Each structure stands twice: as C-alpha cells, then as structure tokens.
Amino acid sequence: MTQTKAEFEARLRQIGAERYHDKHPFHHLLHSGGCTPDQVRAWVINRYYYQSRIPMKDAAFMSRVEDPALRRAWRSRIEDHDGTTENEGGIARWLRLADAVGLDRDYVASAEGVLPATRFAVDAYVRFVRDETLLEAVAASLTELFAPKIHAQRIEGLLANYAFADDSSLSYFKKRLTEAPKDVAFGLSSVLDRADTLEKQDAAAKALIFKTDVLWSQLDALHSAYVDPARIPPGAWQPGTYLAPGMAHAS
Ligand SMILES: O=C(O)c1cc(C(=O)O)c2c(n1)C(=O)C(=O)c1cc(C(=O)O)[nH]c1-2
C-alpha cells in the first residue's frame, strides 16, 4: 500500500540515519583532528571533483525539465556553485580551502590527481541524474537533508583542530548552511508530492540509497588510498606533491 507522506518522509530520513556518510570513519578522523596535513589535502583534492560535478548534474537535470517553474526553482543550485556577479560561488570557495591547506589550486582544479573510484562514483551520480526519472533525480539530491548537520560538525571540528581553518578557508561550509535548506525544502516537498504510488516511493527510496553509496564510496576510496596502510592507485595524487609555492617543505 502507498505510504502516507509522513510515513514516506520517515522512511527517507531513516535511510540517512543508517547510511549517510557522517558515519564514515574518514569523517571521524577528519573532524577530530586525526588527519595529517597530506590526508586533509587528499580529501580537498578528491572532494573538489564532487563539487565540480554538482552544477554539471544540475544542468543535466534542468536540460530534461519541461516545466519552466521547476527549472526556475532549480537554477539557483547552479548559481550557488558557479557564482554570480555578486556571489563568488561554491567552487571558488572550495579553491580557497585548497589554498589554505597549501595546495596548488590549478592542480586541484585540473582534477588530475583524483582517485579512480572517486571519479567512478561521482560520474555515476551525474549519469544517474541524466538517465533516470526526474523523481529519482530529485530524490537522489535529498542526501542534502542530512548535510547541514555534517557541515556544522565539520566547521566546529576543523576550527578546533587545524591551523588552516578560519572564516575564509571554511567559507564554503558556512555558506552551505544557508543555501542547502532552501534546496532540500523544495526537493523534499517535490518528492513527497510526486511519489504518489508505492512503486514510485520505492524508486525514490532506492535513488536515495544509491546516492548514499556514491558518497560513502568516495570516502572508502580516500581511506584506502591515504590512511595507513596507504594504497595509492597509479596516477593519483602523491603526498608532498603539487603544493602551493612556499609550501615545498611543509609536511
Ligand atoms: O559535505 C557534505 O557532506 C556534503 C554532502 C552533500 C550530499 O549529501 O550530497 C552535498 C554537499 N556536501 C554540498 O556541499 C553540496 O553542495 C551538495 C549538493 C548536493 C546534491 O546532491 O545536489 N549534495 C551536496
């Protein structure tokens, strides 16, 4: 039987409670100050790839939407990341974080040293949004329901534990605290409205699980490559390389 909206929303939230990447050991290491400078750099390099693809997946989504009102509601997501004349945008803010941790920002932006599994996971998300139903595409974005909590934990944990952390380097996360709630409020009500059969509810729940897997896999890749025993795949970033000028001897 089709679930009521309240039951269905509870089901979606339960998926986050069980599977969101705030539970991943790499995040515990990062937020508690347990990462070396190079482990933080590896996270910044790899996570940049996710950031860079988010507006591309939103553009892929919009290219399929026939309803002007839905496109209008969605397009601020692209501006939030790519920026506008008044707002520098999330990608530029992420590169400020890259500067702060002592990386060469051009190298980070080139995405050359990204781990293969990160690339596979993120590209799979972009393809999912391009190929699956609009309902599933919106449902996959609902991991953002759980993101403000992890962003707040991250700001607190990084400020307490790392010298690079300050208002400028963490501006990406501060800004998301105000941007994400408008996106999820819209995305959640749209999924609750559109999933009006059990079949559609099941598909939306599966899409959200897929997305939690996309996020979890990225951290598995990081943990495997850069946390002891480190197994860095060929071609991926090597610790100590591509540092910003003046950082050559920093560890
Ligand atoms: O730091 C995080 O844990 C985290 C997670 C997620 C997410 O849950 O997908 C996003 C973000 N951050 C984020 O900053 C962001 O802009 C974003 C957009 C989306 C999306 O799927 O459209 N997820 C996320």
Automatic annotation (TrEMBL):
Its EC number is 1.3.3.11. Residues 10-220 form the Thiaminase-2/PQQC domain. HAMAP family: PQQ_syn_PqqC. GO terms for biological process: pyrroloquinoline quinone biosynthetic process. One of its GO terms (molecular function) is pyrroloquinoline-quinone synthase activity. Signal peptide: none annotated. The keyword Hydrolase does not apply. The gene is pqqC. Keywords: Oxidoreductase, PQQ biosynthesis. Pathway: Cofactor biosynthesis; pyrroloquinoline quinone biosynthesis. Pfam families: TENA_THI-4. This is Pyrroloquinoline-quinone synthase.
